[in-house]
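ESCALATION

Customer reports they have been waiting on this structure for their group meeting. Please prioritize. Original submission:
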Amino acid sequence: MRTHKHDDAAAIEWGLKAIALAEQLGARESYIQALNLVGVARWHRGDSGGRAQLERCLVLGREAGIHSAVGLAYVNLVSIGGELHQFDVAEKYVDAGIRWCDEHDLDHYGQATMAGVGRLLWRRLTRSPTTRTPPLTRESSP
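Update from on-call: job pushed to the front of the queue and completed.
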């Protein structure tokens, strides 16, 4: 929850506690989910080690057969990469993320990945020096 409010310091603090507890209990899925949480918060703060943690979640989730953990990692790699204007990174995971979610019936994560693509395209268009377009506005109705 802290990552959605961009309270990255608290997300990292609580995520590290969750990682330690999951390791103690041998709770593989909880470990991967907590690693994902910490990865998002770290990368959001500009620490590229967070991206590496998300990429690690892809590997761990596949190895453990935890499809939802892989789907969530793809969503975050696309979304946070776009948010940070690291378009090449975000785009690297779009096709694989959508394909993974489709193959594993993860409709929610697939839709979230596609929404991330929309945000990614919008950010790319509005950031490009040759296509600086004003934000969309609604026309007033009479």
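Sent to customer with the following note: The longest helix spans residues 107-127.
Escalation resolved.
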